[in-house]
Amino acid sequence: MNQCERCESKEANVHFSMEETSMFICNDCYNEIIEEEFEVNIEEIAKSFSIRDFQGVEHTFHVERRIHPNGIFMEAAESIEFGYRFAVHGELDCSQQELLTKLIMKARRGTGVRQVETKAFPNGQAYNSIVTDQITGLIEYDETSDSTPLVIIDGNPFTWEEVGKMLMTYEGFQLKLKTYDPTDDVE
Ligand SMILES: [Zn+2]
């Protein structure tokens, strides 16, 4: 663990530089500095929340808030690797409580619908199929491949090859591939 150079107690995860200062600090210290610099109040908000997904399985999300000169970034991520992750962005003077509510609603929408289901061929071999002709996911680094990414769908990682296999039932169809910022709403 890299210790925060400011409070010397928490884990450092932000590189902060302003004028001649450059420090590796924790998220709380970062927020404190920005709070003073931009006169933003850090509202007391929940640090985690839990929701049930489309099949009733409970997921716990940890909330991280980061204040930037151009606004507030708030992210909810599961503590597991390649789980669900959602983010929203608000103005510096927005209600952070409302921003959190927006984030929870986004997580609820995102976990409420099944996108990929596993079916079985008559011979028992399993295959994945796209439920509604559309998938929304997160692009992540695949450490087992240097040429293709992982795509996180329904809170589960799929290799690029697995995604390709799911598309094989759509031979002859058109495909639209568009990327979005993590804080955008994907229609
Ligand atoms: Zn600190």
Describe, in plain words, how this protein is organized in 3D.
The chain has three helices and eleven strands; from the N terminus they run ββαββββαβββββα. It has 187 residues and is of the alpha+beta class. The chain is elongated and about 65 Å long. It folds into three domains: 39 residues, no CATH class; 71 residues; 55 residues, no CATH class. Strand 7 and strand 8 form a beta hairpin. The relative contact order is 0.11. The strands form four sheets. Strands 3-4-5-6 form a four-stranded antiparallel β-sheet, with helices on both faces. Strands 9-10-11 form a three-stranded antiparallel β-sheet. Strands 1-2 form a two-stranded antiparallel ribbon. Zinc ion (ZN) binds next to helix 1.
Short description:
With 187 residues, the protein is an alpha+beta fold. The protein contains three helices and eleven strands.
Q: In terms of per-residue confidence, which ranges show pLDDT below 50 for 5 or more consecutive residues?
A: none
Report the structural category: alpha+beta
Q: How many domains?
A: 3
Computed Rg: 20 Å
Into which percent range does the helicity of residues fall? 10-25%
Shape: elongated
- Could you say which small molecules are bound to this protein? zinc ion
Strand order of the largest sheet: 3-4-5-6
How much of the residues is beta strand, in percent? 25-35%
Number of strands: 11
Distance between the termini: 39 Å
What's the rounded overall pLDDT mean?
A: 93
Q: Please summarize the sheet with the most strands.
A: 4 strands, antiparallel
Number of helices: 3
Order of helices and strands: EEHEEEEHEEEEEH
